[in-house]
Design goal:
By secondary structure, this protein is an alpha/beta fold. It has 2 domains: 236 residues, 3-Layer(aba) Sandwich (Rossmann fold); 60 residues. Helix content is 33%, strand content 32%. It is built from 10 helices and 13 strands. The strands form 3 sheets. Strands 5-6-7-3-8-9 form a 6-stranded mixed beta sheet, sandwiched between helices. Strands 11-12-10-13 form a 4-stranded antiparallel beta sheet, covered by helices on one side. Strands 2-1-4 form a 3-stranded antiparallel beta sheet. The longest helix has 18 residues. The mean pLDDT is 88. Bound molecules: adenosine-5'-triphosphate. The site of adenosine-5'-triphosphate has 12 residues, from strand 1, strand 2 and helix 1. It holds the Pfam family ABC_tran. It is a peripheral membrane protein. One of its GO terms (molecular function) is ATP hydrolysis activity.
Amino acid sequence: MESAFIELDGVEKVFDVRKKTGFMRREKHEVRAVDGISFTVPRGEMVGYIGPNGAGKSTTIKMLTGILTPSGGRLRVAGIDPSRERTRLARRIGVVFGQRTTLWWDLPLIDSYRLMHRMYRIPDERFAQNLDRCVELLELADLLDVPVRQLSLGQRMRGDIAAALLHDPEVLYLDEPTIGLDVISKAKVRGFLRDLNAESGTTVLLTTHDLTDIEQLCKRVMVIDHGRLMYDGALSGLHEVGESERTLVVDLERELPPIEVESARVVKVEGPRQWLAFPAAESAAPLVARIAAEYPMVDLSVREPDIEAVIAKMYAEKVTS
Ligand SMILES: Nc1ncnc2c1ncn2[C@@H]1O[C@H](COP(=O)(O)OP(=O)(O)OP(=O)(O)O)[C@@H](O)[C@H]1O
């Protein structure tokens, strides 16, 4: 079994675009959508792939599926060069684009699945098993006879996820799988993906603008901007890279002047409650002990930094890992 299931080494994608620069005049210029990206993903891992609009996420996924050919570098998925052997790879990967459906719009959901059964030449027994499992876990039983165009966005998304899994792919690329979904549908999709990864060991690459998806599903996250990898590591490590702060909320017995303590500063006071900011990378325990020793503390809580703020700061500062 290969240890790195997805492998990118210095992968580049350059688009030649013609820009109108005046009447009848067009200038050719290059867009480096992906600018030398290297990473590996071992089998069974669930990784977040995030970045601002136009960062190069979709272009990377399109290269991983073989839709686009890299302009440079080396790329392998399950040992296969995607753009050279796209059909062979298609049997081993599943793709869900949140903003587009792979289902047949006018057909009942079940008919799309039957078409995929034939297209992917899925053995009958395996198809039946996978369909049963998806119908149960994604709660599709009442929807199978409904034409896709009549489904709500959340229902359609669950239908699309099932469609991507009928042929037992070893890797699933998800591009914005929770976009536009309500809170309950999001929770259902996330729960399903978590179970899928834990039980079937499916490798998942998840692109999303909703950082809660990442927080709830991925231990590892890669941040891309301007076609370059800016961060690759644990989600918790992003706080340190972003030099963010955590907040200690302290309830005192009574209103007192701002607490004075080493390695933290008071950022807000409201009656007997005070908010102290301290470096996210440091443990709260010694700080709490110091405050408890000198002040009449009755309660406390620690607030984690807002991950969205950390990432926004990273983009702004162009921090490289
Ligand atoms: N076919 C194409 N021709 C020319 N430029 C392209 C093409 N596809 C993408 N680009 C450009 O490449 C860059 C990266 O685009 P890409 O769609 O990969 O970004 P993204 O991170 O997926 O963004 P979003 O979050 O908005 O989907 C952008 O500047 C985009 O305009």
